[in-house]
């Protein structure tokens, strides 16, 4: 803004009317006040003639912003100026004018003694009371709807709006903005929460003030944020105020689509760049997203001039939006770590650096875990490879000891490749290690399978050979046990001449089926022979036992004849014999009957049943015929006993013969088993 030619009140008023917003109006008067040839006369003329609140308030404040020391000294000594300022401070038409006049008196440094001649109250006290009154108005739930709300806004727009930063220090911008947007249409007159009312009123005023100040407001926020960046850890909370920073970011985003000059673009982009270091993550993300998505030729020029800042923006955007998970590659973690290192050199504000530091700890911790996992997976592969190599080597040595030809065929197939030549940053490192272990397991499976097949084959072959040899030996034993049976078997089957399959060797596992068929064939043939042996002995045993059965029958006949004789003697012959003998010995019997009878009676009287045997003896003495009968009976029973013994002997011979034949049969059957 060119203000060198504005030397009259009319020119200043014309320039004031040409301003697009209060921000430009404030810039106009600051430019005039800080000019080496400040238009003091024009300012005095405005005080005397202009009653319009904004231009009058800005003119009053302009006196306090003059930077030329000589001019400032003359003003301090001007009684006329003090009278005009005191008049406005005491009875100005609005609070803004009274506040502006009072603060200007303080800034110019008028002698308090002289000031007291015009004011009954210190100018600082006047300004402070006005400020406190304005602050209290924030508690009014009808503030926005009040008739003097526009005047209230002008006070903060043209007055000490910096005070609003102090009043909104602890507010979180995006949460408050969302709440404000949801309520601003219908207002918050129905709310009974005084704290909420104050928050919403303050936010609404801050929003209106920043909108009114436009680029000037953004510039002021940029200066505060730049100061915070330069101060680092010592930055003040006021300079880092989230509410004004957030409003600046939003307004800058809106205006970037319709800026009118490169200088405007520069201010708007500086706001976005400063917001990259905001203490609020949402503000950072929105600023980064806006910077990276804008497309404009002027923006391209800035991008070329500040390429490093754009790299920082890209890095910050990625870090802020990235969520580290197990799927995050190690290479990505390295990039994140490098970006954080880069940002730590570029960014200056304390909180964002702290959050970056926390993010870096997470990244480094995850990288450490990945390194440990990679090292463990690699070591596991190495150990697994060693163990697999040992197992395969055992299999190969066993195969080689059995068949060199098979060993040479399988050797190349089971050779172990080297571990994957990869590093921890390989995207699929752990998967490759697992695949390698699976490949090792497959190699071992091949070696083990061939090893098992070879052992099974040659074990089966050896078993078949042993069976064949055993059968031949057993047939020889059968010949020694019972040549006739052997001859019978030889006639029945050609097993005796059977040979092992010639030139059978291991080519593949199917060869085993030949041996299994041969083994099955042997078993079937032997089962047939066993059946033949059983049938043969079913015929042999009866023929071998037939002579003995004949002898047993003869013995039984003789014994039965003797028993019949005994029975006849017992029945008729015994009576006849006794009768004849009794006739011959009758005289003796009669002579001995009386005395013997007396003795028998005496014995029975004295001995009872105990004298039974004695009475029999006395009876025999009285009857000699009975003695002769007993002798004949004894001879016959001896003859019967002889026949019984002979029969038992024949039975024993038959049993022994039968057991002998059965034992033969069992031996032969056992010899025909494998």
Automatic annotation (TrEMBL):
It comes from the Bacteria. Residues 326-353 form a coiled coil. Keywords: Coiled coil, Membrane, Transmembrane, Transmembrane helix. The chain crosses the membrane at residues 576-607, 613-632. This is Uncharacterized protein. It comes from Brasilonema sennae CENA114.
